[in-house]
Here is the input.
Amino acid sequence: MEENVKVRFWKSTWFVVLMCIFFPPIGLVLLWVLEKFAKPLRIALTAFLVFYSILWIGAFGSVNSSYVAPHQVSNEVSIEKFQDQRLTGDWSISDNGHSGNSAFDYMKTTFGDDGKYQSEFKTSDTHEVFSIVGTYGVDKDGNLYISEKSSGNEILYYYTLQDGDLLLQYTENGTVKLSKSNSDINASTSNEPPKPVAPTTATYKPGTYKIGVDMPPGLYALTGPGYVEVSSDSSGDSIIDNDNIGNFAYILVQDGEYLKLSRCSAKPETETAPKTGSVYASGMYKVGKDIPAGEYKVTADSDRGYYERNASAIGSGSDILDNDNFEGSTYVTINDGEYLKLSRCSISI
Here is the structure.
């Protein structure tokens, strides 16, 4: 009588098929060790399983990371956060030799000692200007959490401090290098001599100025009425932005640009007082400084008026968020960090 021989389960055809489907590297080995199926079929299956194994390893073999990409909204609420006092102050791009900095025309970021956060930057590819206002906190792993005021979203970055500079990870593979505007660090990472920059206490009268030589880069308050123009070269043919201003406005200029003032003057914004009074007449207002954020009724001085909401001051190109030529009156809602331009109209509070 012939004896029934038990076959181990891992030698069974059904087990080999399952391994090929769910664990293709193991299935591929068993296919040849156990010599399942005819040789031509095994060769065809091998070609398929090699390709399938690569996809399988890529999907399940990657290593998890604790890094969270910038601009990702987080639902995490249990992480213990605190303020890093080393971040307190104003930071901006100063090292053009850092590869990640080339993604931005400029970036200015402020960390307050009270946990407030404000950042404004312009991308070099699309020349769009972005402004983020809110509060910040960090955790022990070097994650920077920004709670955006306007949307309520929480944005995550990764940061580190290196030789007095701030390295901020803005993409999964790129960092931007920022330096403190008023750093106490005496050592400089640059071998170039400092540029002769005029003192910031000056009031700049009508004329043409080279930024970084005749006047420092930054935000300035303008007194008019007059005309302003920002160019990338001294010929004036490459105009970045220009405007006919009213009694007052704001302009942001960067290192290497040229600023033309006609029938108006400029003074560093930090040395000017907020606008006061119950009536906001024609001019440009910095929201959060000159006028609180909120909804306002705008009334035309005559038949028609014009208002304009900007993401940043003059000098940043086309960054109009909202505008309207209106009759009689209308309503506008403004947010901290924006700039409101009123022409032939006013706001009464």
Summary: The longest strand covers residues 294-310.
